[in-house]
Design brief:
Elements: H1 4-18, H2 25-34, E1 54-58, E2 73-77, H3 78-84, H4 89-92, H5 97-105, H6 110-121, H7 127-130
Antiparallel strand pairs: 1-2
The structure holds zinc ion.
Length: 133
C-alpha cells in the first residue's frame, strides 16, 4: 500500500508533468495587467472574452530551454496560442506584433504585481464611496 507521503510525492510529480498551477494567480494576473488584457499576437481585447480563452504563451518554449520568467511570458488568446503551434514566436507574430511583444515583455513588473496582489486580496476599492446611497 502506498503511504500518504508517497502519494503526495507522486501527485507532485504528475503536477509537474502536467504543469497545472505552474504559475501563481498573482503572477498570471500581473502579466495580463502588464499586457493590458490584450493578445500580444493578434491584438484582440480579451477583457470581454470567456476567461478560459485568455492564456499565457511562452515565447521560447520550455523544451527549447525557455523559462517561466515574466519576460518569456505574454498574454495570448486561445486561438493564437494554439495556432502558433511550434513556430518560433517571431515567425508567428505579424503586423506590429513583434514590436508590441518586445515592448511589453521587458516592462517593469513591480506596479503590476502590486496591483494584482491588491485585487486578489480584495484590497482595491473604498466602501465609503462604493457602498451606499
Ligand atoms: Zn490572438
Amino acid at each position: 500500500m502506498k503511504s500518504a507521503a508517497n502519494k503526495a510525492k507522486n501527485d507532485r510529480k504528475r503536477g509537474q508533468y502536467q504543469r497545472k498551477n505552474w504559475i501563481s494567480k498573482t503572477r498570471r494576473l500581473s502579466i495580463y495587467l502588464r499586457d493590458g488584457f490584450q493578445c500580444m499576437y493578434c491584438g484582440s481585447d480579451l477583457r470581454r472574452v470567456d476567461p478560459a480563452n485568455i492564456t499565457l504563451d511562452h515565447l521560447t518554449y520550455q523544451c527549447d530551454e525557455g523559462s517561466d520568467e515574466n519576460s518569456n511570458l505574454v498574454t495570448a488568446c486561445r486561438s493564437c496560442n494554439s495556432a502558433r503551434g511550434s513556430k518560433p514566436w517571431r515567425e508567428y507574430a505579424t503586423g506590429g506584433a513583434i514590436e508590441r511583444i518586445v515592448r511589453q515583455r521587458t516592462r517593469g513588473m513591480v506596479k503590476f504585481t502590486a496591483m494584482a496582489r491588491a485585487i486578489i486580496r480584495g484590497e482595491t476599492g473604498d466602501p465609503r464611496l462604493e457602498g451606499g446611497c
